[in-house]
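Recap from last week: sequence in, structure out.
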Amino acid sequence: MPQSIFVNLPVSDLARSIPFYRSLGFGLDAQFSDDTAACITVSDTIRFMLLTHERFEGFCTLPRADTSASTAVLIALSRDSRDAVDDLLAAALSTGGKEPKPADDHGWMYQRTVMDPDGNTLEIFWMDAEAASAARKMNSG
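Predicted structure tokens:
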């Protein structure tokens, strides 16, 4: 079995959060979902576990971050094109997401930020790896 990533995200309203993540084109794995958690399948190896606050706090050793006042984590998700970044953002904004800042366009990388209804932050980006490598070489030499 390939190594997998499960990103645990606290949500205040599971019934509101599931449609938000489904609108981004992600699946729902009912096998790992119940009334306190929803397993959102991003890819074969990446899943978001949406957990009610109480369930999330059961896993924590420190207090849960207040995402209305601070950033707990930045989750960067790549897309295949600039258009795919924009399409994902449009879907997120149509289901309660917020875009807290304008797009970052570096030519070789295009990035947009969206916050889910609970303030969890996703950085959606497209990058031309060859152009990024060339830019790094120019900046280091």
